[in-house]
Amino acid sequence: MISFSLEKVNTEREAIRAAAMGGRFIAGGTTLIDLMREEVERPERLIDINALPMGGIRVDGADLVIGALARMAEVAAHPDTMHLQPLIAESLIEGASPQLRNMASIGGNLLQRVRCPYFRMLDAACNKRDPGSGCAAIEGVNGGHAILGTSDQCVATHPSDLAVALVALSATMRVRGPQGERSFPVEELYRLPGNTPHLEHTLLPEELIVEVRVPGGSYARRARYLKVRDRSSYEYALVSTAAALDIDGGVICQARIACGGVGTRPWRMRACEAALIRKAPDRQNFEAAAQLALEGTHALSGNRYKVELLPRTIVRALQMAGEIA
Amino acid sequence: MEPSEIELTVNGQLRRLRLDPRTSLLDALREHLDLTGTKKGCNQGACGACTILLNGKRIVSCLTLAVMHDGAEVTTIEGLMKGGELHPLQAAFIEHEGFQCGYCTPGQIMSGVGCIAEGHAHSAEEIRFWMSGNICRCGAYQGIVAAITDAAGRSAQ
Asked: Which pLDDT score, from 0 to 100, does residue B155 have?
């Protein structure tokens, strides 16, 4: 780990000012410290933002509002989360380990770096870590990599489970920077790799995530997160699906579907959603809709199985959501 | 870089430390306070050997900087014994043979204490899920689950 300075800030203004001078925010630190030890991340100045009043969870009308500094475990166990947005709680509990969930903040979860093994290996080519050096994963070990949104420069998947649930639920985030505040959909936080895989998100360097807002919806209670992986807990997704359904009179009125483990960012499946409207929530309709998720997929040597696994995971998640009374 | 001064209450005792900001909480405990019960396994948050309680919650001490925890309360495996008596979960690990080589054991026990306190120890299945942040290379999982089940049952009485 290279040497760095660490300063504790007590106001958002101080935090933003310190970031404008080249500092990096640190909250839970579970991604950043790990990558600093590997010298994949080399910040010289850290800004400890844990004292800022951006924690907690509140209900605002029908919306669930989650502070950026709230910890994963705290959000997952909160009665308002479980009652209003059980999908958020389920996606959180399916991620990381109990210890990490006690440490990791919601803002940090959304900004966590990729888990591509080559990103962590300083002697391997990685355009994300070292722009222009190439991508070792495209011809390498790529069983865990993406089939959607890839480019010839990067094929890493976004690792957050929470982000998948938030994208499915059309959540928004509020960020604060030197020019004031702005709000935008969580989906727009993430960039496709294209020719610039080292640019992962749309925040300015000095912008601070303040909170995440999950709008209430008629589908929020009939929602499930299914994570398919190599072991049944504490593992990243091979394919995951967040599915939410509003069913009335035996037909689907609204559907929300997003998938993880398959895209270079959390992937909303709008074609699948549209295909389910005014249909009965049965296996045949789920299978027909799920096939639409394969539009634009591009498999690598090691991840062809995801082309089969993706629609199957969507179907199973829709069935699980549909089974909720 | 300038060392930072912090205070930690470790196992009930106030300790003052002067640390390079790079020092993990794990290294502060092991190298500066000589509390070597907490183990360094992977040093990347994957194995759980370094699990401690920070302000009452289980965390992996390798993935956090000590200087970020000025004023915090830390409990390590050395702090579980009370009045010369083993903590019920320590006793249960011995009774159920929840270890073989013992290297992961302090982390397993600290994580188990957290798991029981959180109310996530009602069944073997639940314990397996909520203990998944602790890896045992010897494969003593049957004994570990039995020990936590036993201790959780006793603490509920």
From this structure: 84
In a domain, A298, yes or no: yes
Residues A200 and A87 in one domain: yes
Round to whole Å and give the CA distance between B55 and A119: 34
> What pLDDT is stored for residue B100 in this prediction?
97
What's phi and psi for A85, nearest 5 deg?
A: -140, 70
* pLDDT recorded at residue A255: 98
In a domain, A172, yes or no: yes
Residue A303, min C-alpha distance to chain B (Å): 24
Give the CATH number for residue B57: 3.10.20.30
Interface check for A51 against chain B (CB to CB < 8 A): the answer is no
Q: Are B63 and A30 inside 8 Å of each other by CB?
A: yes
Helix (H) / strand (E) containing B155: helix B141-156
Kind and range of the H or E run holding B49: none
Statement to judge: residues B92 and B75 lie in one domain = no
Residues B63 and B110 occupy one common structural domain: no
Of B43, B67, B132, the CB nearest to A233: B132
Provide the residue range defining the domain that includes A268: 223-322
Whether B12 and B73 map to the same domain: the answer is yes
Q: Are residues A69 and A194 in the same domain?
A: yes
Q: How far apart are CA B152 and CA B154, in angstroms?
A: 5
Is the model's pLDDT at A288 over the cut of 80?
A: yes
Shared domain for B72 and B100, answered yes or no, is no
Q: What is the ipTM of this complex?
A: 0.97
Identify the closest residue of chain A to B25 by CA–CA distance. A33
For range A159-165, the mean pLDDT: 98
Low-confidence ranges of chain B (pLDDT < 50): none
Q: How far is A98 from chain B (nearest CA, A)?
A: 6
Three-state helix/strand/coil letters over A118-132:
HHHCCCCCECCCCCC
Among A residues 231-260, those touching chain B with beta carbons less than 8 Å apart = 232-234
Say if pTM beats, i.e. exceeds, 0.95.
yes
Residue ranges in A46-105 assigned as alpha helix (H): 72-77, 79-84, 86-93, 98-103
Among chain B residues, CA nearest to A8: B68
pLDDT class of A77 with cuts at 50, 70, 90: very high
Are B8 and B63 contained in the same domain? yes
The confidence band for A293, taking pLDDT boundaries of 50, 70 and 90, is very high
* pLDDT given at position A325: 80
- Which residue among B4, B43, B133 sits closest to A98, beta carbon to beta carbon? B133
What pLDDT does residue A270 have? 98
Place of tokens 């634009």: A296
Task: Residue A232: list chain B partners with CB under 8 A.
Answer: 129
> Total structural domains in chain A?
3
